[in-house]
């Protein structure tokens, strides 16, 4: 066995165990890597060499330690883990092939939910890695085809070789061929150099030898390219002219019109499924909003032919039609030959139901479960209950045996009964050496010679009940007294249209975005608003929170109403707040969660109360006081925004896509907290599971970590629970709730899949 180490500019250090005797043909859709360790270090430490490597590990953040990464071909894995456990780091290490043991030939496509601070400078879209460069000055349809096929690169080679062959210079074809070969060898040299940098030990030596050989090959080709005409023999000229013509024919086959047409057809089908109209497909990427750019990046990834497909929160910025289409599309990939291996990170529990396996990153290790998430949670709870009962029974048995040993030793010594003394010593030996689990991993009776081969000081494993992570709990403050009853919010025949101030009054009035909306919200109500993108949900929300005024109709509010509004752009707004001061304004201390909230409460709460509120929402201690806003994750910024709303003790929460950026455990905690809260909730979300819990009051196993019996008492209080669908500016109550909306969207998805 040999250990290898890799280092990337992103300061991710990876080591794993590999055998040099594995001569089997690799399956590029599978990974089977043992002894995987991943450490993230700062840039200051990442350049250390030699003996400093052990110091790097001690100063870096360890993500995995001696873990096993096993992905089976064609399986669909849901990667679970709390924020901060290293999910994104693991996915990046896989995608960039930093982990020793991933073949360079493996085709890996990844969609990452990472923010790009300067998209124009980097020429990348939000959500793409460095290898997913998409030019923003191109059209959507053109750029995703280019990203998936590298068509422009092939066309450049065709153009260069064609110009060389058609030139009047008899040496033109030879020069064109050698130039193309030289540039290709340079690309291969880059890969060899990367391989040599990533490896150490015997394989590192082998990789460096291959690098030296490739460097010599590149140098020789450069000499051939620069070779004077008079030194080239007629035989070599004829041979390489023929080779140039053959290579040109091969390249032209790659951009054959039928293949290009098929690729374009697939691209349009994917874009349509993600919500792009024909008009949007022909728009420049730079003209799109952040959400549509993310969809463009997702389409580019889905169009690629790949062995391993990695999607990190792909449902962000998708409406339910896009989510259900993507879910159906990914499931359909398994029906084809050479189906890619899929890894998904998502907070949408309904979406990840398409996965066949669960991959959990916890305590610097990777564990696996074959089955869906509800089955995994039920199995985990059942195993914990079983192990607790077994441990309690074993402890009672041990206590009984210890009393028997003490009694036998006492009686044996008093009566000089050697049999009782030997019996007591034998039982003591069993307690010391053979006490523990009496069942094997298959559930049968444990046998030492079968289940634990070899010599061990202790022959049985201890009965260990897996320690659960501290459950995520979000505590919502009580509301203040309204003093007199009445609706909190009321819309009566409200209509709204967007009117541009630049247009003349004589111009034809634009159509209504919303028409004839009647809606009332009382204390304790749970109102869900569902609909596809563009149906007017955000417009309706802005009317409710009085960020927009009705064109006609009436909006009335309770005189003492306090409302908390979570915008779908809240995270982006907080990131802008946390940006450094512009040049010339002088240095300012970085804005933290504590400093921002302290400034906003303006003395209404003391520092202890502010810290308590932040801590109750998952931003405790130094995380609140020392970490600048610009360094907080998306999920942490969501918690901060909730704190900015809740300190006022609102009577009504209006939440527009609040689950975006949260991990699935925090989504479950928020769902549980909102379900039992005494105030009113108006919820806009594409997360079906979340809406079912908050609005419809559905309770399942995922709520076991909630507030317990108090929530049950709250649920017994009568509430008005209504799900509305907003379509074409009209609000309709759905008697069947979310399921009725889901069924209607499913029919459209099936039509799109057949197109």
From TrEMBL:
Give the record's keywords alphabetically.
ATP-binding, Coiled coil, Nucleotide-binding, Repeat
Chain ranges of the ABC transporter domain: 48-389, 489-728
Pfam families, sorted: ABC_tran (PF00005), ABC_tran_Xtn (PF12848)
User: What start-end ranges are recorded for coiled-coil regions in this protein?
Assistant: 376-434
Q: Please give the name of this protein.
A: ABC transporter-like protein
